[in-house]
């Protein structure tokens, strides 16, 4: 048995390393098979020597990130823990927490900054920097659309682009909603509501209203992209799995000068019939090797919603595979 005590300058700083959540300390203890106890400004780790070393490394990574100004969240704590476990099990180093938090988007006022929370999210944001067209492919809750919008808003606020165009196909999720009364905006609002929700989460209400009033952020159904050439803009297509082949080709050819395109979708949630009509599936087949286009693929390990969502995805993947 080995024992190590790590002291910090204050209880507040120590508690910030595990997001002031003792359940995270217990999670570390279970995963590394150590006992982790804290009182005042010290942390005591007990267990097999190798396991104690791993736990100490987790806290060293957390401390470095915290001293460089990062806020430690439950997600970043788990990332630091999983990175150490991954390194031990595979012999391969995963990006450390500082590398993960090297990209910071937005923030200010009452809205927190946006950071990538997983390795694939970091790869995704790096792809957005380097390519004109980026596909974010993967299950619900992996941050595909949220990060795309945060990145586009950062570029807009820095005046690297003139506007953002957000669009998605108007396809019901497996049920017919029938005739929707009202003007065009009222008819398409149910389909576009998730995009509005994400915007309101990232921007102060007054700022979001100013952007909308000045036509700096446009939200429209996919069908209204036809015939347009969009310059100096970021164009985001959400729920792309429900775009038909014709719509996807039309959308990808709207890009004008100094514009970029971000396409997000989940091939497991195609509502088109037959599913082979999906333009996302065709694009994944045709565009893999085209210069300037990148595909980032997410999996259940990237899910950042309630942890049960990742387990639901895993169960469905297994069930569908067994039933295939």
Description of the structure:
By secondary structure, this protein is an alpha/beta fold. 45% of the residues lie in helices and 15% in strands. It is built from twelve helices and nine strands. A six-stranded parallel sheet has the order 6-5-7-8-4-9, covered by helices on one side. Helix 10 links the parallel strand 7 (233-237) and strand 8. The N and C termini lie far apart (49 Å).
Strand-helix topology:
Elements (H helix, E strand, L loop, with lengths): L1 E6 L3 H7 L4 H11 L2 E5 L2 E6 L1 H19 L6 H17 L6 H4 L18 H12 L2 E5 L6 H14 L5 E6 L15 H19 L2 H9 L3 E5 L11 E5 L7 H8 L7 E6 L13 H8 L6 E5 L9 H17 L1
Parallel strand pairs: 4-8, 4-9, 5-6, 5-7, 7-8
Antiparallel strand pairs: 1-3, 2-3
Helix pairs in contact: 3-4, 6-7, 7-8, 10-11
**Stretches where pLDDT falls below 50 for ≥5 residues?**
173-180
Work out the radius of gyration. Answer: 22 Å
The outline comes out as globular
Largest sheet: 6 strands, parallel
User: What is the residue-averaged pLDDT?
Assistant: 84
Strand order of the largest sheet: 6-5-7-8-4-9
Record field, number of beta strands? 9
Beta-strand share of residues: 15-25%
Structural class: alpha/beta
Give helix % range.
40-55%
Helix/strand order: EHHEEHHHHEHEHHEEHEHEH
Q: What is the terminal-to-terminal distance?
A: 49 Å
Key descriptive features of the protein:
single chain, 45% helix, three-stranded antiparallel beta sheet, six-stranded parallel beta sheet, 324 residues, alpha/beta, globular
Summed up:
The chain is an alpha/beta fold. It is 45% helix and 15% strand.
